[in-house]
Amino acid sequence: MGFSLANVLAGIISFLAAAISSAGGVGGGSLYVPILNIVAGLSLKTATAFSMFMVTGGTLSNVLYTMSLRGQAGPDGHPPLIDYDIAVVSQPSLLLGASVGVVCNVMFPEWLITALFSVFLASATVKTYGTGMRQWRAETAAVRTTLEGGSASAGDGTEEALLGQKRAGGLQHRWVDMLVLVAIWLFFFSIHLFIGGDGAKGVFDIRPCGVAYWLITLAQIPIAVVFTAYIIAHHKRKSHAQNSQVSDQSISVKSKLEALPVYAFPAAALLTGVMSGLFGIGGGLLLNPVLLQIGVPPKTASSTTMFMVLFCASMSMVQFIILGVDGIVTALVYAVTCFVASIVGLVVIEGAIRRSGRVSLVVFMVAAVLALSAVVIACSGAVRVWVQYTGGQYMGFKLPC
């Protein structure tokens, strides 16, 4: 696990992948695993463990940058880009879905997982690109109206500001949301620490598929339901109390998201978590396009996705540290590389947005990462399936135990 030429080359490629992923608001796990496996020559299990360190490093710098430089509410009342309401109400379902997806990953054959993942990524690429084009045309129309002397809408930036005004209930509310997220993290982390997950065994060596294993595993369902129900009720009360303080214009801009059923975000997060666990990657690559399709503005979708992925990836990373993953020093070096690269990617995309005035660039970056991931996953998956086929391995469905 030393700093060989292969590791250096893998680090350079990972730096570029982290910068691109951060600019698009995704974790980058779908790119890190093939890079570590093919370029650095690590086993798939070790590459998966290392990727959790890398995703945590990249998302941590992204979240810190967002909260410190562009996420703080300033004198002009500009709200934080991270939508804490979406994060809090979605996180339990996202973690629950990931656990369900892991069970499906064990049962489904490799060829089916590869095919489903490739189809999903291709479909998400097309849809996200279409969203970006609609945003681009809207921005072009706004610029044209401004040049013609009309009163143009402020565009996506204003929409994001107004979106946050109703939700920016002050620093106190954000700290409450953070405490709730930490509590959720601790509950699910404790469960995974007992039974294991993401390629790691539990600390108490509970027999897989035994009575204790299934009791602890199934306990995630009521925990997720209780947390989600409480959060929805709490934010309904908070939203009702704040309605009188929000301008009519803000309510008008926010009406599309407010019209969604209360279960829209938890349901989307549950589906995203299942796919994340099934395909063996972090949820950012899947969650960001879902939020964009729901109607969340691009920069808010990107920042909120990275915030949520930080909690998921850090859970697996801490578990690997406690269990003593091999090559932890190398893994931490990769994580620091992604930490720095993530900041570089954010600075570059922010500069491009300021110069062009087009927030749609974020959407196009998401589409680019999706397309690149589709190619990488399809090719690497096809190679693994071919090796299994030629080696005479069983390629059907398996039992979860």
Automatic annotation (TrEMBL):
Main location: membrane
Organism lineage: Eukaryota, Viridiplantae, Streptophyta, Embryophyta, Tracheophyta
Family: Belongs to the 4-toluene sulfonate uptake permease (TSUP) (TC 2.A.102) family.
Transmembrane segments: 47-65, 175-195, 211-233, 262-286, 306-325, 332-353, 359-387
Domain of life from the UniProt record: Eukaryota
A biological-process GO annotation: protein ubiquitination
GO cellular-component term (any): Cul4A-RING E3 ubiquitin ligase complex
The name this protein goes by in its record: Sulfite exporter TauE/SafE family protein
Keywords in alphabetical order: Membrane, Transmembrane, Transmembrane helix
Membrane topology: Multi-pass membrane protein
Location(s) in or outside the cell: Membrane
